[in-house]
Every structure is written in structure tokens, then in C-alpha cells.
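tool_call: predict_structure(chain=1)
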Amino acid sequence: MPGRAFATVALTLVVTGSMMYYDPTPYADGPPPGHTGGFGEPTCHQCHADRPGNDPRLLIAIAGLPEVHIAGEEYDLKMIVSHPEMKAGGFQVSARYNSGERAGQQAGRIALPHDRGQFGPVRTIADSAGVVYVSHASPIEGDSVAWSMLWTAPEADDPVIFHIAANASNHDDSEFGDRVGSVSFVSLPQRPVVPGDGDTDRSMGPAPTGTEGTLRSATGMTDD
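tool_result:
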């Protein structure tokens, strides 16, 4: 689970009266942290491995992430996963500094919207280093699904990379037959104009303030 939905199969023993049985359900409530494929992490391909992770029909997108962000600005982000043969979808995403002394550390603040609207349920979980991972809290059925989260851009003047891992599942409660992939997108910090520094790409005109209409996507991604 930039990976890919529901990660591993866990065999859980359940006792009901004198009856005992196992529940072969994958991580339907989200994968463990650290499965986005970024900074040497595995992805959901670690378990959903019977298909190659480069299906060109698998689309993983993030809407609302600007190419240039403003420190302290809150962005309403949407993660989108689609595949023509998908029955249910899942994902995991992280936001970390891409380079410099902070590379790999949490970048900005993550929050969940109070009103999900038509978007799927999500959850957050942090690892021991403080990196926050957002993932599905339960799979959403359909061939195109989306989740929402809020990201407040950090004050630090370093690029931020979003790693997203996704699973286009066949929804058969197993790790087999799914199509998984991972992608990454970078958002650069806005910088003031410094005459003669040669860096004008992020300082020409007003800084982007809105997220409407901003869609960044990739297909044909590969896995670990």
C-alpha cells in the first residue's frame, strides 16, 4: 500500500461458544504504517504480489495538491484510485520532506475533515518517528473511489513529497488477484523573488491559493 490496498492476510481465531474458526480477512481497515513505497518502505505489493505492479489502466491521483504550496496554508486533498476491473479500493499516503536535513520526516500537519461527504472513511496512524500515514478505514466498492484529507503546509523551505500506494482490489477477501501500484508527487515551497538567484519558477506572479481544479495523476506505476 508511492503499495496498495489492504496489505496482508491475517488469520484470526474466533471463539463462539464451543465453535472455533478463522477469519481470512485482509487489512480491510487499512494497512500497517510504512507501506507507501517511499524512502525504502515496502508497498502493498509485498503481500498482493501475484500480479505485476505496473498495470497501465490503474490510475492513482491526488486532487488539490499544488505544485507550489504556501507555508501555513490548508489544502483539501482528495486521493483517487480507479481501474476498470476494480471492485473495491484502498490506499495509504504520507507527506514528508523530500530532501535536505529533514528528508523523510513528517512535513506539515494532517487532519481529517469533519464532513466526509461522498468520500470514503479514512484513518491516521503515526509511526515511531512521528510520520503520519493516512489510509482507508474500510474498503469502498466501485471502479473509481476517493478519500479526503486536510494538509497544512509546513513552514520549512524544503520540497514535500507525497507517496501514495493503492490497491484496486477484486474484493474477494484475499491478497490474490488485486492490482496494486504506487506513485509520488512533489510540492515545492513558495519562495520570494531574489534578483539574480536564477530561481524564478516559484516566485513569478501570485502564489497559488486554491485547490479547485488541481489534479495530479499517474498510471503505469511500479512496485517494490
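agent: The chain is about 0% helix and 40% strand. Proceeding to next step.
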